[in-house]
Automatic annotation (TrEMBL):
Protein name according to UniProt: Amino acid permease
InterPro entries in the cross-refs: AA-permease/SLC12A_dom, APC_superfamily
GO biological process assignments: transmembrane transport
Transmembrane parts of this sequence: 12-33, 39-62, 83-110, 122-139, 146-166, 172-190, 211-232, 252-279, 300-323, 329-349, 361-380, 386-405
Pfam families: AA_permease (PF00324)
Phylogenetic lineage: Archaea, Thermoproteota, Thermoprotei, Sulfolobales, Sulfolobaceae
Cellular component, GO, one term: membrane
Boundaries of every Amino acid permease/ SLC12A domain copy: 15-377
Annotated keywords: Membrane, Transmembrane, Transmembrane helix
Species per Swiss-Prot/TrEMBL record: Stygiolobus azoricus
Record localization: Membrane
Gene3D superfamilies xref list: Amino acid/polyamine transporter I (1.20.1740.10)
Membrane topology recorded in Swiss-Prot or TrEMBL: Multi-pass membrane protein
Length: 416
């Protein structure tokens, strides 16, 4: 892919917009606040440190790989083709579930504000259609949208935090929840949103330097802002949206605008990331090669496939499960898949670091160990065993798909 056109600020805006911190706090934070209470600010700091470890791994890997594909590319060249495909496969589910969580969160926010004026299905169609329209308008339009909304989200978080902290409130009393790892898992939802930029390495100027800096900057900015707002809200109760509505009411229209558009932007950024991974997999013949075709320098076929998959599946989930259940389940699923692709990146750097760099070896091993521990305990504490079953089936299908793909390739070579 040509046109390396995103500068550092544009890449930061798109990545930070994909993180959608304010909307992520409303989606992931709503669930985490109900489970964790006043422990949530601490969980947010722990989550930021965990994500930062994995972000530093991506920082090191992105300095060696600057092509499209991100985690798929790291695993494909550092590990094996099979693990590359499975990593790409998991990333596609991560991108969908993260985008779906944010879009469902936007619908949830809109539903609260306009009450029952429109049914959920209509709201879903409107927001999914609008986000799909912006994706099809091209990367430049999405980036400009990201630049505006990113600033709006930062402003919303800072103002909300200051107002809540200045108002009279109950003193802070730390309460340790029963499901500490599950609370931390949801808290990871905010800073982990950096993952949408690495698959776009081929479209970033000086990607080997810029991607790593952007990754770390987005993690720290989103993670620390989330800890601040979680601390400010945790002393008021456990209903995140109502706390803002009742205590920052004079700013609620602006907060509503920021959260709604932040969720839409997050969905856009991750669907774009999904398309770039599909494009990279198409180049390596892991999916139909027609998905790697370029139209005016952009992988239009991969974008259309991503939009169709995301639109149909997300609408079906909201229609049959409802908005709140959808973003609750997708939020939990997205964090589990995030940990899996992070573990893949950790192993990729670990393998490359052997006999080369003790610093990278220590970093990758520490990140791997921490991610494994959080993953295992989070799986044990998941709110529904169905999530674990679906995740296991998804992984099995990925390995099965690779084996079938290899058999087909062998049969072609045999008859050529």
């Amino acid at each position: 892919m040509d046109n390396k056109r995103l500068n550092a600020f544009e890449a930061f805006s798109l990545s930070f917009g994909g993180q959608a911190p304010f909307t992520s706090m409303i989606t992931y934070g709503t669930v985490a606040l109900q489970m964790g209470g006043t422990f949530l600010p601490i969980a947010a700091i722990i989550a930021t440190l965990i994500v930062l470890l994995n972000g530093l791994v991506v920082y090191r890997l992105s300095s060696e790989f600057s092509d499209e594909g991100g985690y798929f590319t790291y695993a494909y060249f550092s590990l094996t083709k099979r693990l590359g495909l499975v990593t790409g496969w998991i990333f596609l589910m991560y991108a969908f579930t993260y985008a779906g969580t944010l879009i469902a969160g936007s619908i949830y926010i809109l539903k609260i504000v306009i009450s029952q004026l429109l049914p959920d299905d209509v709201l879903s169609i409107l927001i999914i259609a609008f986000s799909s329209f912006l994706i099809l308008k091209g990367l430049k339009v999405s980036v400009k949208y990201a630049e505006v909304i990113s600033v709006a989200e930062i402003t919303a978080i800072v103002i909300s935090s200051v107002v809540l902290l200045m108002k009279p409130h109950h003193p802070f009393h730390l309460m340790i929840p029963q499901d500490i790892f599950l609370v931390t898992l949801f808290a990871i939802g905010v800073p982990s949103g950096y993952g949408n930029i690495s698959p776009m390495g081929g479209e970033v100027k000086d990607a080997k330097k810029t991607l790593g800096i952007v990754t770390v900057s987005v993690i720290l900015t989103g993670g620390l802002l989330s800890a601040l707002l979680f601390y400010a809200t945790s002393v008021y109760g456990t209903d995140f949206v109502m706390i803002l509505k009742e205590n920052v009411s004079f700013l609620f229209p602006y907060l509503f605008f920021s959260a709604l558009n932040g969720g839409i932007l997050g969905g856009i950024a991750y669907v774009i990331a999904m398309s770039r991974v599909i494009y990279a997999m198409g180049i390596r013949k892991m999916v139909p090669t027609s998905l790697s075709y370029l139209t005016n320098g952009r992988p239009l076929n991969a974008e259309l496939a991503s939009i169709m998959f995301y639109s149909v599946l997300l609408f079906a989930l909201i229609h049959f499960l409802g908005v709140y259940t959808t973003f609750d389940l997708l939020g939990e699923f997205s964090m589990l898949t995030y940990l899996l692709i992070s573990i893949s990146a950790d192993i990729s750097l670990l393998r490359r670091a052997v006999k080369r760099s003790w610093a990278d070896l220590s970093l990758s091993f520490t990140a791997f160990l921490v991610s494994i521990i959080v993953l295992v305990y989070s799986i044990a504490e998941t709110s529904s065993p169905v999530i674990n079953y679906v995740l296991a089936l998804f992984l099995i299908f990925g390995f099965f798909y690779f084996e079938v793909l290899e058999l087909v390739k062998q049969a072609k070579r045999k008859y050529e």
